[in-house]
Amino acid sequence: MEESWATLGVDLHLETTGEATSGTHSGVRKGLTDALREAVRGGRLAPGTRLPSSRSLAVDLGIARNTVADAYADLVAEGWLTARQGSGTRVAERAVPRPADPEPRRRAAGGPTYDLMPGTPDLGSFPRAAWLKAARRAMASAPNDALGYGDPRGRIELRTALADYLSRARGVHADPDRIVVCAGFAQGLSLLGGVLRARGLREMRVESYGLDVHWDLLKRAGLRTRPLPFDERGTSTAELGSKRGTGPGQGPGSGSGPAKAALLTPAHQFPMGDPLHPDRRAAAVDWARREGGLILEDDYDGEFRYDRQPVGALQGLDPDRVVYLGTASKSLAPGLRLGWMVLPAPIAAEVVEAKGGAEWACGALDQLTLAEFITSGAYDRHVRGARLRYRRRRDELVAALAARAPEVRVTGIAAGLHAVLELPPGTERSVVQAASWQRLAVQGLASFRHPDARVPGRDALVVGYGTPADHAWAGALEALCRVLP
């Protein structure tokens, strides 16, 4: 005997038009189908929910049973529902993917089911056991002064470990005395912005595509951001040269005019994904030398290279004109709030003074743990494993798009934790909206464009493949393919 809808303890609350309960069979069927589809898409009917039998729903709505059966069949064919003998008709698991993480309450309250936003690694792969071992060893050997206020530059153990690691892994010329540990990239950029503003800088050149949070940090430091041109070869450095500012050979902020500076992501442009062209790398450094400029190099994901030899840090070309900024946010986790700056000697003392007068926000024990993690080889092992895992995800993303959305071109995939999916003109906004209906978090390229950028508009998605846990990755790919044109 079939269960009645009342015994299921759920009320369908279909939002139907007049067509759903009156008119022709086809009109009623279409109205009911649309109402059920919208209920599933909007998340009011969760994956796995058992629907009433066709007889029960027909009685409830006052329509023919065959009309309900036909509407169910339409939605089964479309993939919104499933129907199995003995199990009844249910909302398909893949129509609105079920949360597959340890935070279902937060997501049920309105957060995304799957997060493909760029900029975050797979937090579930954080090496907890290895980190705890390093923390125990670090605590056991920590000197008593490690529990005091310490050096604003950070613990010498970490600065020494970073100097060695950055030299061999990224080609950075790093002296521990010129390394300053900071609470992530944001604090480092804020400190540098404040120091350069105090030196007389009024304007910072930035890339046409980037993060508004970085532009806002510079604005709060009193600096205007002015975007560089962007073309098929990436960021153009030709406009770095200017007749205003310091003369040749003068340090940033010295001399008769304001200092000059540029914020770049030369190893892997964010978000477009390509490295700065070799000619333009050389031109940027030549500009800095010639006009007393300073380049802030954001090497946010330098460890993750897949299809080519690693692109060395720009800082290696001229350590006196490039500030190298790195972070553990992509390689380990942003919650550690650990970043570092490798500074030219003329500006290092000013940054240390600025940091010493502010909230340091860098726990000494976490610094000692990271130092131990690096020197023991655990960091290299973790990065190698993460590189293989993210490359596999990258390959699966490309394969899924080739099979399901062959018109979508994928770029910027030789490195990093995200890809750029080029869309047909005029479709970016509708695709982002469709993804939100599916509770899939994605970000359109337009949100990364500087408001003053003089570049043609492009329709694309910037898709991060680092965030989902391994067990959720297949579902995230399925949801992504479903919303693409």
Short descriptors:
485 residues, alpha/beta, five-stranded mixed β-sheet, four-stranded antiparallel β-sheet, 14 helices, 17 strands
Can you summarize this structure?
This protein has 485 residues and is of the alpha/beta class. It has helices at residues 25-41, 54-61, 65-78, 104-108, 128-141, 156-170, 184-198, 212-220, 278-291, 345-356, 364-375, 378-404, 428-437, 470-483, and strands at residues 81-84, 88-91, 114-115, 179-182, 203-206, 224-227, 230-231, 234-235, 261-264, 294-298, 322-327, 339-342, 409-411, 418-422, 440-441, 443-444, 460-464. The strands form six sheets. A five-stranded mixed sheet has the order 4-12-11-10-9, with helices on both faces.
Would you mind describing this structure in some detail?
The chain is an alpha/beta fold. It is built from 14 helices and 17 strands. It has helices at 25-41, 54-61, 65-78, 104-108, 128-141, 156-170, 184-198, 212-220, 278-291, 345-356, 364-375, 378-404, 428-437, 470-483, and strands at residues 81-84, 88-91, 114-115, 179-182, 203-206, 224-227, 230-231, 234-235, 261-264, 294-298, 322-327, 339-342, 409-411, 418-422, 440-441, 443-444, 460-464. The strands form 6 sheets. Strands 4-12-11-10-9 form a 5-stranded mixed β-sheet, with helices on both faces. It is elongated and about 85 Å long. Residues 1-10, 95-109 and 243-259 have low confidence and may be disordered.
